[in-house]
Design brief:
This protein is mainly α. It is built from 15 helices and six strands. The longest helix has 37 residues.
Length: 392
């Protein structure tokens, strides 16, 4: 392909410009929704299936015995997966260790990135759900500031749109895989995206709109770092803002991680060809599969909790303290004696005895191999949570 030839498609325009001593080809996203209008007929069956799957997932939230508990874990799993797509090497156990102030075995920056993602998601959802704050450029900047508050991205203008050129892949714009719009045209693209987000009269289904917004945000790439993570957050925020989901139980990062190469290829294909159909089909399929997986995982976790609770109730007089510990490890599946003592306000001997009972029932397993400061894992539960979270 001749990189010196400008080209316009329904998704935007490719242009060239001198950057230093080389000519660089960059992309300026066009307005969304694209013109001519998208033909949604080919997606009707898949769109209906995806919406039905979301409905089942949303309905599950009303029957969960402890919705905040599930959200606590779902948010952390999504944070880990989204950060892994960007290259972090931490695990759920590492995140729990950081939150408990325990010793870490991996880069602190990796774990802080995941922790920042949790805080950014919490902020965005609180603004949208509790404060009725619309998704806007201001909110996006605020979320980005929290996302990048510490760790490797803390020096890359947290909360500020970039004022210099960035790129994806390669060592410079001239050999990059993708070069987003230069700063002097980027803001216009962002204002158009914000206008599209606020179009209440839009006849586009919310899932189609979310697919367009995600790709558009990734194409604009308005920050020096953190664009991928923030772009994935926007999907969940849009579903909650439009009341498709009452609780943020859908996260696409496991699907995108599993199909990482195809995901990047489809983003680039829309920019090159203007053909949105393959990307929209991929996105809807991801919503369908992820919704069904989340529903099934929640049911399996409920079964684990119920089975283990019934086993604990057979302990007789020891059951009361063991049940309190069991409730606690549903929130913190990696635990040590000191954390449990502090949180449950029970004596160390009482906690140790309760841990011993849960070990005998194969509910807790000691994993540190230490004689002191032992760590215990709620293994059956953890196995459900960590599915798909192995570092890339």
């Amino acid at each position: 392909m001749n990189k010196n030839v400008d080209k316009t498609t329904s998704s935007g325009t490719w242009k060239t410009r001198d950057f230093g001593s080389e000519r660089v080809r960059f992309f300026i996203p066009g307005a969304v929704p694209p013109a001519p209008p998208l033909d949604l007929m080919p997606f009707q069956r898949l769109l209906a299936s995806a919406n039905q799957a979301l409905g089942r997932l949303d309905g599950l939230a009303s029957v969960l015995p402890d919705t905040p508990l599930f959200l606590y874990m779902y948010v952390r799993k999504e944070a880990l997966l989204s950060s892994q797509i960007e290259g972090t090497q931490s695990s759920l156990s590492d995140l729990f260790a950081l939150e408990d102030g325990a010793e870490l075995n991996v880069s602190i920056d990796d774990v802080r990135e995941v922790s920042n993602y949790v805080a950014a998601m919490d902020l965005g959802l609180a603004r949208i759900k509790d404060d009725n704050f619309p998704i806007s450029l201001r909110l996006i900047r605020d979320i980005h500031k929290v996302l990048m508050t510490s760790g490797r991205g803390s020096t890359k203008q947290p909360g500020e749109f970039r004022t210099s050129q960035n790129w994806i892949g390669g060592t410079r714009p001239g050999n990059a895989t993708y070069v987003p719009p230069p700063p002097d045209v980027m803001l216009e693209c962002l204002y158009q995206l914000e206008s599209f987000l606020h179009q209440e009269e839009s006849e586009l289904p919310v899932l189609i709109k979310a697919a367009l917004v995600h790709l558009q945000f990734e194409s604009i790439h308005p920050f020096l770092d953190g664009n991928g993570r923030l772009g994935r957050l926007l999907i969940t925020f849009m579903l909650c803002e439009n009341r498709i989901l009452r609780e943020p139980l859908l996260y696409l990062s496991l699907y995108l991680k599993s199909h990482r190469q195809k995901y990047y290829e489809l983003l680039q294909s829309v920019r090159e060809t203007g053909n949105w159909a393959p990307w929209i089909e991929f996105f809807l399929q991801g919503v369908l599969e992820t919704s069904d997986q989340a529903t099934e995982t929640a049911r399996e976790i409920l079964t684990i909790f119920d089975e283990d609770k019934r086993d604990i109730e057979k302990l007789g007089q020891a059951a009361n303290t063991a049940l309190r510990l069991h409730e606690f490890i549903q929130r913190r599946p990696v635990v040590n004696v000191q954390v449990a003592v502090t949180q449950l306000r029970l004596s160390p001997p009482t906690i140790r005895k309760a841990i011993e009972h849960l070990e005998e029932l194969s509910i807790l397993q000691e994993t540190s191999g230490k004689k002191r400061d032992k760590r215990y894992v709620y293994q059956r539960y953890m196995d459900q949570l960590i599915s798909g979270t192995e570092p890339l």
